Amino acid sequence: MSRKRISIRLAWSMTLGASIWAIAGVAFADDDADTRAMDLHETVVKVPMTEHGLFGDHERDIVATTYMPDGSGPFPLIVLSHGSPPDARDRPKIGRYRALPQIRTFVELGFAVIVPIRRGFGVTGGTYEEQFGTCRNPDYIAAGKEAAKDVLAAIAYAATLPQVDRDHVVLVGQSAGGFASLAAASYAPKGLVAVVNFSGGRGGDPSKHPGIPCGPQQMADAIQHFASTTKVPVLWHYVQNDLYFAPQIVATWFAAFQAAGGQGQMIVEPPFGRNGHGMFGVSDSIPVWLPHVERFLAPLVPMKQ
């Protein structure tokens, strides 16, 4: 497949606050309907899901945004999962997570995109369900299972849309969203063909231990657990100067992934900016990661030539 050339504006201008959010893998969102990207057919939707509580099951909605190429489709689907801010008080500020340069890139490749806002974040709000406990003894498996529920709900909702090719689904996530994507893939949702994990993980705190997250062995165990039932290939994309998850730590996670039967490849990019953890959220990085993603997905998904 000849790679489609995509024009990328490399001019990048952002405030200090926006820089911090890019590093964390999240972005402020403007929810004014007048500012929606009409060229991407941006639409806000409510995704139904079932919560399991002490007093039984109940239904609730999570807020998501869909983006579509021109035409009737059906288009292969990307479910894009956001990260988590370092400060819990900032979770509402994620809004709808509108990473438009990245989303536009996926749409130009011919993908429909849905961006669910998981429970406890942004416009979805409600109770945060992805707590992993203490840094000394984190329970990443439980946290991953909760995050996966929201991702799986988004897949099920998108499968009802006439523009979506339900047989070609790709999970893409950054930071906590990358980990959520790994966890969701373990449930083998119908139509899933691949996962792209940008700097995925949980428990990082560069202010205390740069590059060394809470319970790296527990994370390896969680990844091994999820990988044991993951049937699709995964692209692991990380950066050398990630201040949340250092390459030597990630290498042990990838080894655990492979030991459990996980298939895929890991790429570690040269240093990017002051903290490579937020590479995906910076539009200048698109020409760096896009060729890897295209080569990885080319045998698995029908994309625009």
Q: Would you kindly provide a written description of the structure presented here, covering whatever features stand out?
A:
By secondary structure, the protein is of the alpha/beta class. The chain has one domain: Alpha/Beta hydrolase fold, catalytic domain (Rossmann fold, 3-Layer(aba) Sandwich). Helices cover 28% and strands 21% of the residues. The protein has helices at 16-24, 100-108, 140-158, 176-185, 216-227, 247-259, 286-297, and strands at residues 43-53, 56-67, 75-81, 112-116, 164-174, 192-198, 234-239, 264-269. An eight-stranded mixed β-sheet has the order 1-2-4-3-5-6-7-8, sandwiched between helices.
Short descriptors:
globular, Rossmann fold, disordered N terminus, AB_hydrolase_fold, hydrolase, alpha/beta
Short structural description:
The protein is 28% helix and 21% strand. The chain is an alpha/beta fold.
